[in-house]
TrEMBL record:
HAMAP family: NADHX_dehydratase, NADHX_epimerase. Its cofactor is K(+); Mg(2+). It comes from Zunongwangia profunda (strain DSM 18752 / CCTCC AB 206139 / SM-A87) (Wangia profunda). Keywords: ATP-binding, Isomerase, Kinase, Lyase, Metal-binding, Multifunctional enzyme, NAD, NADP, Nucleotide-binding, Potassium, Transferase. Bifunctional enzyme that catalyzes the epimerization of the S- and R-forms of NAD(P)HX and the dehydration of the S-form of NAD(P)HX at the expense of ADP, which is converted to AMP. This allows the repair of both epimers of NAD(P)HX, a damaged form of NAD(P)H that is a result of enzymatic or heat-dependent hydration. Catalyzes the epimerization of the S- and R-forms of NAD(P)HX, a damaged form of NAD(P)H that is a result of enzymatic or heat-dependent hydration. This is a prerequisite for the S-specific NAD(P)H-hydrate dehydratase to allow the repair of both epimers of NAD(P)HX. This is Bifunctional NAD(P)H-hydrate repair enzyme. The lineage of its organism: Bacteria, Pseudomonadati, Bacteroidota, Flavobacteriia, Flavobacteriales.
Amino acid sequence: MKIFSAAQLKKADELSIKNQNITSTQLMERAASHVSAEIHKRLQNSDIAIKIFCGVGNNGGDGLVIARQLIEKGYNVKVFVVNYTDNRSDDFLINYDRLKETTNDWPEYIKSASDFPEIDQNEFVIDAIFGIGLNRPLEGWIAKLVDHINYSNAFILSIDMPSGLFSDRIPGEEDRVISANFTISFQTPKLVFFLPQTMDFVGDLQILDIGLDREFLSSEKGQAELISKPEARLLYQPRKSNSHKGNYGHTLVVGGSYGKIGSVLLSSKAALRTGAGLVSTFIPKCGYTILQTALPEAMVIVDKNDEKLTHIDHGMDPSVICFGMGAGKDPETLEAFKQLLEQTKNPMLIDADGLNMISEHKELLKFLPKQSVLTPHPKELQRLIGDWKDDFDKLKKVEEFTRNHDVILVLKGSHTFIFGEGNIYINNSGNPGMATAGSGDVLSGIISGLISQQYQPLAAAILGVYLHGLSGDIVAENRSYQALISGDIAENMGAAFQSLFAD
Ligand SMILES: NC(=O)C1=CN([C@@H]2O[C@H](COP(=O)(O)OP(=O)(O)OC[C@H]3O[C@@H](n4cnc5c(N)ncnc54)[C@H](OP(=O)(O)O)[C@@H]3O)[C@@H](O)[C@H]2O)[C@H](O)CC1
Ligand SMILES: [K+]
């Protein structure tokens, strides 16, 4: 699903009105009807007290339509107009009149802090104060109202966006933003719903299709693309029945040091479980018995050195090399890595200490094979590209980096971002249980396993990240977030592949 900016959504709005021959009031009615239907489905005629806070723009207009429709269904609704200006939008005014025709319990106006209503924690608050039109921080009593709503501990549903959240920048530390439990957003998610600095304001998220212009939505390039099952499915390459292991390539996993052989084991197992035809593992001598015992399906080649990598003379022609997990940064390992980079022409996957060595020796960047996949977590990214001002600045800097070095970058996080070929993809699978030792090693193995099966590196990164999260979701369902360990993610890749096409 594409993610559009506020300006793009306004354009989609205008085009829909024109091409579908409807008024903006009708579009608002359509959008809000979807929301009230969704609320009705969940509340099931409950007599819970509903307080709806409406701004005086179109987000507020949505709130008024929702209020009218819920009142018509018999819900216990009280409407408050957050009168931040006397300039009301046309559709606000039209729906204000319609609401007054529906109920004798007219909206109350909030013009200062003394007008704030009490909000009980057992009530249900709908936040329709500001949407994508917010263009400056909330001030004065409006900011205080946001605190008042947040501190009530009532359940908060935000319409389109939590009020106070900008669609195109990060709020300052002093800025007030509604902390929603649930956000229902129109047509496409907004980029800020997925950024680490702003995602917590959103709560659970639901996107409602309000029928905006199809032609525009499909032809317009989005700011980013959200990857859920339908998008991941499109990347999957089915196997031919007439094939043999040679068709699925050879993944060479290189890494490990004394005490850190487990990392390479996890990557190798994940590559096999993802379908690599052959997996070889190049490690220091100390890991030989461990690898051969724990993973008999992999071939093992050892370094001359017992405890660290010093000469990576693998003598093979692998489809892809996955480098760095548990490798350490010993000067001899650095030299061996440099030689490996110089010799390798196929795209590589580089993780962990491979990334750290590049960060400390930027001259290595020029030896990176084109289209290699780098998989940093935020700290590794910072070492690689330096500091950023905020999450928007970070996106810009990573895009520049991937363009300058012709690489794919997988930025790991609760929503992993994949950067490549001028696009940003945001993963929508996975769960907090996956923040566990070795989870990244498994991801490296999965992506490498896909590249070895002739997936393009970018497709391998997107699908690999999605499957990794999906497998983690399947494990968490059976085992809890707490008990999930990264070996389980590799073990459950089979269930993840099956689930990709299950419904
Ligand atoms: N295409 C769609 O997705 C549809 C969206 N709908 C809904 O419409 C809103 C967007 O409505 P809009 O009227 O453009 O904007 P807001 O309601 O968010 O804001 C209204 C005005 O408020 C002013 N503003 C901005 N920031 C502040 C602030 N900090 N303090 C006070 N006032 C502020 C600003 O006007 P100015 O002239 O003062 O700059 C805003 O214009 C969208 O989110 C959806 O909920 C449609 O209902 C369906 C289609
Ligand atoms: K809102």
